Amino acid sequence: MTTDIIPAAIVPPRPAWRSLLWTVPFTVLWTWLIHSLPVLPESGLPALAVRLMVHGLIALGLWLGLERTDLTPGQRRTTWLAIMVPFTLWAAVAWTAAIDGVFRTGAFPFPLLPAAIFLPVIIGAPLLLLSKRVGQLLDAMPTTWLVALQLYRVFGSQWLAYWLRGLLPGLWALPAGTGDVLTGLFAVPAAIALAAGTAEGRKAAILWNIFGLVDFAVAITLGLLISPGPFQLIVPNGPSIGLDAYPNVLTPAFVVPGSILLHALSLRQLRRRSRTEVVRR
Question: pTM of the predicted model, to two decimals?
Fold first, then answer.
């Protein structure tokens, strides 16, 4: 994926571009660190720090969003716990399984990594997209939050660093890494454009969500096709994809399905907000 395939409508107004003045240098610095200090990502500390930060932001944002609703204090606590407890348990199970090597190729007769990617989405999407209580939360929460949150996708530049070091095949690392970085870099500009309250801003946010989902579709499909296992159809020259070990496996096993659900929630929120504005007119 390159910047050439980003729809023109996703480009936000000029003020929104100012966020790139710090997100681009940060992403370049992070990529350089990962490339120059291999021990850093291998330690798992960056993955732990990013996940804890995002987890905390989701917990805080969820609580602040619930405070904006008309729910009673008891209903807010119940809703917060009903979302955060399963989410935290899911993170703990995925993390433990990754450390124990459960997702390694050959660890079980059938591969568990594809199940870790798809099952949370299959189970979580209907619950989040059909829940009336979640709908109330989305109506009260600013639409910019779910978009700007995925700034963390810039950390996907590590796949580009691994490719530069000859550890990952370019067939997968280039589209997956570039797509992740672009999604992360455009998260804040898309949120700023959305905050303007214009139809163009809403369209930019929708296209940003679609682009982020397409990035995952490409990365997952290529990953299944070139990774050793029953779905492999392509054997790349050079290194194998090697994403089944800790800490890298946490990305497909937890970050990817979690991010897909965030995209789905954002699209639902934008659709509900658009309907509300039509009714008011």
Answer: 0.90
